Amino acid sequence: MNIMKQFLLGRRLVGRSALEQSATLDDAAAAALAESLAESMARHDWQTPRAADDLDLSLLSFLVLETAHRYYVQAEKALKACQSDEGRRLYPVAMLPERLADLAATLRFYDEAPAMAPSLPGNGLASLQSLTNTLFAVIGAQFPEHMAEVHAQVTRVEVAAAIRARFPRTAAHVPVYSPTHVEFMGAVDKTRCIFAPSGKYWGARDYDPARGFDANVRRFGEDLFRFMTVARKEKFKGLAFRLPASYSRSVERLAETTAILLEGLNRIDPAGSRCLDRVDDKPGWKFEWAGESMFLTAFGVCYPADHPRNPYGFDHTYFFFQPDFVLRNHPGLIDGKEEISRQRILASFRKDGMDYDNAGKEAEHARYLRPMAAGDRAVAWWDYLPSRQVIEEPLPAAV
User: Are 206 and 352 in a shared domain?
Assistant: First the structure.
């Protein structure tokens, strides 16, 4: 098996195995493991050959693959050459401590979950995309015997036991392991959208009925800000927010939910945007949050199974947020290919009897929701904004 396939398959295997063995990491635990391994390398000579089942080496591979799983890291072509003579020179053991320190720094930055601010925080840190590929390349270049059986080594019980004992996860919510994410990915697997399967997604914390709607919106705002911070560097495509099915029992109810959700987010927008003051049925409007524009897709139980916005059999309401800085950089939407891509997506849905129609829905925000029938007029969710509801004065009492 070539090393790129080992990376991609290992990413999936370690995620499933870690979940089954209660050995999943969060960013804090992963950073601590990276720092521990760097210290181990300082104490011991990693230049000498190591057994294929060496525990520290297995923990290193586990760290790389489990982090890659949580962040949807893709295999880079550079992995192809790492086991050549040139690759062994380019990826020496000596670079491991520094790259592990870099990995820990990026994980610590994400773990701090920066407080909402008028704009997304920037940094000069390396991405987990590049760091995990580099670390896997060093393992492949310098420890070929271990790499030959890396999948068996990272999923063995001794590794899981060491993780549970020394680097336990403390975060209650890890997006890729969340119920929202797991269920949403089931829908992604079923969708007819030709681009969906290749996307990188996270799930927000579940709606908590005990908190009330406003409190849940504020908590989602925190998740959205963290997601956008990560998405810019790691090229994520979207964040899913799951609510009870009652919020989409009818198209009208889903429109109302959309309006109060966006109004709630706008109220706590750290950039202070008043974008909802300007929304109407004209093209060109964008929902803005934390200084960034984005697209929203709503899925509801009101839609039948053959409707493109049905949540694919799951009894929940879903909102899927996609910042423009990732959506508009999708290869299928740049260089004049957007309309062609849209037609390809429409054809894929139509082939399975799930038509939709953009006639009369030229405004992008008119596509946040879909009407029940493809040719029906756009659902004007903005008419349900709390600020636009007419409060009738009570009639004077009869005298």
Answer: yes
